[in-house]
Amino acid sequence: MDPVDSQLDGLLTTAQRETSLLAPYAMFSHQSLGREHPEPEHPYRGPFQRDRDRILHSSAYRRLSGKMQVFTGEMGDYHRTRLTHTQEVASIARTIARALRLNEDLVEALALFHDIGHPPYGHAGEDALDLCLSQAGGFSHNQYALTIARELEYRHVQNPGLNLTREVLFSQAFRVDKESGNESPLLEAQVVDAADSITYDAHDTDDAIKLGLVSLEEFQSLDLILHCLDRIGDGRKGLDEDSLRRAIVHELIDCQVSNVLESAGAVLNVSGWESATDAQQDPFRIAPTGILETEKKQLEEFLLDRVYHHPQLIQTREMAQEHLQRMFDLFCSKIDMLPQRFRQRADEVGLERAVGDYLAGMTDRYLENCYREQFPSL
To answer: How is residue 107 annotated by DSSP?
Structure first.
């Protein structure tokens, strides 16, 4: 599918721009398999640009501002929300994609979309909903993102959902089951996965120190943090703790992105791949490598032990599980409390799944307001 072959007042077409900028192994817009519901092409926006815009303007994307990443709003307003995390991933992913001559429009769409299915209270909420729906197939935020894109979002046309390109939907499906099929994800999807990991390593370190859950001195026992301090060098002199923390976070991102570009660039330059399909036949993955990969794993084990399992977050997890379970049971027992569209959805997908879809779309605050209204004495 070629977005537009004709020029509009002398402007370059999407195909012309991509031909001059992208490597042969990138995913070109004119090679897209199109949409599940065919649509006319746009005169000056390529298909992946349109995907990005549909995601950006969706209500599910806006609600990410009210969903926690790791830390709740009760802990302050410095730390990341699910929305700011998504924006940071998009920024880093575009940097990597541009350097590797991949399709930035597709990368940005995938980055903005990758966490759109997260329920209230992050992974704690996901685990709670998975338990609630254990008899109905469980719950996965990656799968729910596909449900949002295909069924739950509204557009001004008759077709359901956002009607995204198959490349975005297929790439999200890889996130649901990373072992599915014999092919690798598109290189653009691999970039988003790498950027996601780089982003949360850096901002979870930043937020944990800023919130006082773990001290900067404790983080300095880790090899990757020491690596970052070495990169800062004499620039450390005279820095107060806040400035040093920011400098370390900057280096955490920069050293990982540099590593990815060096390692992936070396492979791509000699790959001989003539198309995105060629790249998908190879088991290669874009990710940090070498000593930095080992240092990164040590940092992530530390974050898991000292941050994600911190007593304050365990308390949040328990609260989320209790509140979501109570609201789930309530809606299942009183279907009339559901909005009309979810009562209708219950006829299509079953009551439990419809209730789960409704709860998953809530923000943290909306869920808590509903809970307090229904269970004021608890």
So the answer is: H
Name the nearest CA neighbour of 2 among 40, 31, 36: 31
Rounded CA gap, 275 and 102, in Å?
A: 11
- Is residue 20 classed as helix, strand or coil in its secondary structure? helix
Residue found by looking up tokens 């690798």 in the block = 184
Within a 10 A sphere around the Cβ of 114, how many other Cβ atoms? Answer: 27
d(CA 28, CA 39): 18
Secondary structure (3-state) at 11: strand
For the full predicted model, state whether its pTM sits above 0.85.
Answer: yes
d(CA 278, CA 41): 27
Which letter does DSSP use for residue 238 in this model?
A: T
Query: At how many degrees (to 10) do helices 311-333 and 364-374 cross?
Result: 60
What is the residue extent of each domain of the chain?
Answer: 29-374
What span, in angstroms and rounded, lies between the C-alpha atoms of 214 and 207?
9
Domain 29-374 has CATH 1.10.3210.10: yes
Terminal C-alpha separation, the chain:
56
pLDDT digits (tens, 9 = 90+) for 193-237: 999 999 999 999 999 999 999 999 999 999 999 999 999 998 888
Q: Which of 294, 354, 301, 310 is nearest to 328 (CA)?
A: 354
CA distance 84 to 64: 8
